[in-house]
Specification:
The protein is α+β, with helices and mostly antiparallel strands and 91 residues long. It has helices at residues 2-16, 59-75, 84-88, and strands at 21-26, 32-43, 46-53.
């Protein structure tokens, strides 16, 4: 049993290694959905957020809310934080 637990923990650890943020989204119908942010990319068209969720059937609906949450976080940053370009390159 201990070997199985260790193996399961390793699988979870590998899966979570690329997650940069976890987010809990509450949709207007009062359902909650856990979202794992994997990457951010600023393009000419705007912000692109790469994420995974177990709620695949609601993925399109969640995408809009995930992007809004990320934008709120970015707006809370100081206007020109020190090292912002270096920080953004992490994504």
């Amino acid at each position: 049993m201990t070997d199985k637990i260790s193996k399961d923990q390793e699988i979870i650890k590998q899966a979570m290694s690329s997650v940069i943020q976890e987010m809990l989204i509450l949709l207007p119908d009062n359902t909650t959905h856990l979202v794992y942010i994997l990457g951010l990319d600023f393009t000419a068209k705007g912000l692109k957020v790469e994420f995974n969720t177990l709620s695949e059937d609601r993925r399109d609906e969640l995408a809009e809310h995930v992007e809004k949450c990320i934008m709120v976080q970015l707006k809370d940053l100081p206007s020109k934080p020190k090292g912002i370009k270096k920080w953004l390159k992490l994504f």
